[in-house]
Specification:
The chain is of the alpha+beta class. It contains eleven helices and seven strands.
C-alpha cells in the first residue's frame, strides 16, 4: 500500500502540470482557428445531430463544438492533420484524452491497434498508397504508408492523420450523404473509417498483384539477347520488401477488427457492430493475399536464382568442353617440342602432316561427341 501511495504522490503533480500546459495550449489552438492567417492542425470541425451536419458549416473551435453537443446533443467530429504537441494538448484536455494515447497520436509510427482508455476507444490504422511507376526497378517504391488515429467517445470522434495521402474529406462527404448511418453516432464514423482503410488495402493488393505477375512473366520468359539470367533478382527483392511493408500494416489489424466485430462494447452501437464483421472479412481476405504475395515472391526469387545457376553451369560446361578440345593439340605439340635428339618421326617425310591430321581428327571427334551430349 505504501508503494501505491508513493506512486500516486509522484503522478498527481505531473498530471497537474500537464493540465496547466493543456489549458495554455487550448487557447493557442483556438486563437489559431479564429485567425484565418494562422496555421492550425484542425482540418475540419463539425457537429452532427440526427445524422445531419448542424447548419452553419464548420465550428470555429473544438471547444465550441463540444459546447453545442453538451447543449443540444449529437456528436462532434474533429479532423486533424499532423498536429504538434502544443496544438493537440488543448484538444486532449477538452475531451479528456489519455496522455499515452495522445503521445501515440502526435508522434505516430505506431503499430495498428485498438486500446480502451476509460470511456474512449483509441484505434490506429496504417494507410497504404500505391505508388505509380512506369517500370519496376530494383529501387522502385511500390507502396507508401501513412497513419490514421481515431479517438471514439460517447459524443465525439477525433481523427488524426499522418502522411501526405489518405485524406478523409471524401469519407466525411460520403457519410454526410447517408444520414441514417451517421445517426448511429461516433461508432458509425469508426466503422466507415475502418472500411475506408481496408478498401484501400484491397485496391493496393490488386495493383501489387499486377506487378508480381509482370515480374513472374519476365522471369520465366526467354531473356533478351545480352540480358543475363538472374538479372531480375534485384527487382524481386525490392518488391518483396514493399510487400513486407504492406504486411506490417495488414496483419496487426486483424485482432482489433475481430474484437470490434465480436466483443460487445459500450461505445459501439450493436447495429454497427454487424458491419464490422464485413470489414473483418475483407481484411482477412487481404491478409491471405499478402501472405500469398510473400510466398509467391519467394518462389519467383528462387526460380530466378536457379536460372542464373543453370546459366552459369552451361557456361562452365562450354568452357570445359573447349578446354578439352584445346588440350589435344597442346599435349601433342608439347611432346614434339621437347627437342629430344632421337625421335622417330622427326626424320620422317610425312611426320608433320601426320601430326596435324591426328590433331584434327581427335579434336573433331571430341567436338562431335560433346555436341551430341549437349555440352556445346
Amino acid at each position: 500500500m505504501s508503494m501505491i501511495r508513493d506512486l500516486r504522490a509522484a503522478v498527481r503533480p505531473s498530471l497537474r502540470r500537464n493540465a496547466l500546459r493543456g489549458n495554455n495550449a487550448i487557447h493557442h489552438v483556438y486563437d489559431a482557428t479564429r485567425d484565418p492567417s494562422a496555421s492550425s492542425a484542425v482540418v475540419d470541425c463539425a457537429v452532427y445531430r440526427d445524422g445531419r451536419r448542424v447548419e452553419g458549416g464548420a465550428c470555429r473551435t473544438p471547444h465550441e463544438a463540444m459546447l453545442q453537443v453538451r447543449k443540444s446533443g449529437g456528436f462532434a467530429w474533429i479532423g486533424l492533420h499532423e498536429p504538434t504537441e502544443e496544438e493537440f494538448a488543448g484538444i486532449a484536455r477538452e475531451f479528456g484524452l489519455h496522455p499515452l494515447a495522445v503521445e501515440d497520436a502526435v508522434h505516430a509510427h505506431q503499430r495498428p491497434k485498438l486500446e480502451r482508455y476509460d470511456d474512449t476507444l483509441f484505434t490506429v490504422f496504417k494507410t497504404i498508397h500505391y505508388v505509380e511507376h512506369a517500370e519496376l526497378t530494383a529501387t522502385s517504391e511500390v507502396v507508401e504508408t501513412g497513419e490514421v488515429m481515431c479517438f471514439t467517445g460517447r459524443d465525439f470522434v477525433i481523427t488524426v492523420r499522418h502522411g501526405g495521402h489518405g485524406s478523409l474529406r471524401a469519407l466525411r462527404h460520403r457519410l454526410q450523404d447517408d444520414p441514417e448511418l451517421l445517426a448511429k453516432g461516433p461508432s458509425a464514423v469508426l466503422h466507415s473509417l475502418a472500411d475506408h482503410v481496408v478498401d484501400g488495402y484491397i485496391a493496393v493488393a490488386g495493383a501489387v498483384q499486377e506487378d508480381i505477375d509482370e515480374v513472374e512473366t519476365e522471369v520465366f520468359s526467354t531473356p533478351a539477347k545480352g540480358s543475363p539470367r538472374g538479372s531480375d533478382a534485384g527487382r524481386i527483392y525490392q518488391l518483396k520488401r514493399e510487400v513486407l511493408e504492406f504486411k506490417r500494416a495488414v496483419s496487426p489489424l486483424l485482432r482489433p477488427m475481430q474484437l470490434l466485430s465480436e466483443r460487445p462494447m459500450r461505445l459501439i452501437d450493436p447495429d454497427i457492430q454487424k458491419y464490422f464483421r464485413d470489414v473483418a472479412d475483407h481484411l482477412a481476405r487481404v491478409h491471405e493475399e499478402v501472405i500469398g504475395f510473400d510466398e509467391l515472391l519467394n518462389s519467383i526469387l528462387q526460380a530466378s536464382l536457379a536460372q542464373a545457376t543453370v546459366a552459369q553451369n552451361e557456361d562452365m560446361r562450354k568452357i570445359t568442353s573447349w578446354a578439352a578440345i584445346v588440350a589435344v593439340p597442346t599435349m601433342i605439340c608439347g611432346v614434339y617440342g621437347m627437342n629430344f635428339k632421337h625421335m622417330p618421326e622427326l626424320d620422317w617425310k610425312y611426320g608433320y602432316p601426320m601430326v596435324l591430321g591426328v590433331i584434327g581428327v581427335v579434336c573433331f571427334s571430341i567436338h562431335r561427341t560433346l555436341k551430341r551430349n549437349g555440352w556445346l
